[in-house]
């Protein structure tokens, strides 16, 4: 989604009622209700529900887009009703609707966008399409001690590994991006090639906890040269060769998993330190599914203690895709009078830097 498309954002009066957030970018259906409270955004979260399609896609070893779309159709409206009931609200209480417009799977995005637009039109309330990665980036604002810009954000998930300089909401500069496999994708693919069950990333991280340090060592990709971009496809190949040449015992599997996780985490930590040094920022936000990795959290916290920067993480349930982060990002923009017309549009690819600032 480029600047031209987003220029359709209009300004108007801020919403006063709770915002319904809908997330359907991939294989999780998330719904949340949030009343915007600038001083304490997390306290405005009224209810949130999430349905994961992990079991649906497990037999295929990965997400099947058509099946994901169909399951969103089945689950979305029941989840909306459940979330409203949990908060003790009715549709008529809503002040706005926010939904993930991209990036993501086109069919899955269309389910959420169509439902959101229909509800907003029927209720006569504004609606806005949210950038999925902006949702992740802002998720730490749901915590009791949220970060304030400026800061650097590390966004690490199955489809993205990027470092972003954040001067304010909507003021984003991408410092580094993935050139091939994102960190989460590398976790999943590496787990699959070693025969671990789907979803592979969490399984590999759990197995790494049983590994013996030092038996294997893999390179830290692109850390031997300047720059902040990421590339993890070569690391995946190194693991494949090590696994094929090993005795393939359970202990060896764990040892390789540990060495792989160490390589990923070390690479991310090195790049974060470089980004903070380059920007002069003293705050680091980590968000996205890989942000739930315990080794990454521990290593970045330790690096912050040593180098004098502070790290911010969303709680574990808000690292992976969820409706709360979409409700929050949408509520912020709606509170500043931004909304869009009734056209149903989704953007499987969408440049984060193209977003307008969230200003009156």
Structure, described:
Residues 45-327 form the Gcp-like domain. Its EC number is 2.3.1.234. There is one protein chain. This protein has 360 residues and is α/β, with parallel strands linked by helices. The protein folds into 2 domains: 3-139 and 319-354, Nucleotidyltransferase, domain 5; 148-313, Nucleotidyltransferase, domain 5 (2-Layer Sandwich). Helix content is 41%, strand content 18%. It contains 11 helices and 12 strands. The protein has helices at residues 3-6, 54-58, 65-87, 106-123, 132-138, 183-193, 200-208, 233-244, 250-279, 294-307, 323-335, and strands at residues 10-11, 19-23, 28-34, 45-52, 96-102, 127-131, 151-156, 161-168, 171-176, 283-287, 310-312, 338-339. The protein has a 5-stranded mixed beta sheet with strand order 4-3-2-5-6, with helices on both faces. A 5-stranded mixed beta sheet has the order 9-8-7-10-11, sandwiched between helices. Strand 5, helix 4 (106-123) and strand 6 form a beta-alpha-beta unit. Helix 9 (250-279) runs parallel beside helix 10. The longest helix is centred in the C-terminal third of the chain and has 30 residues, at 250-279.
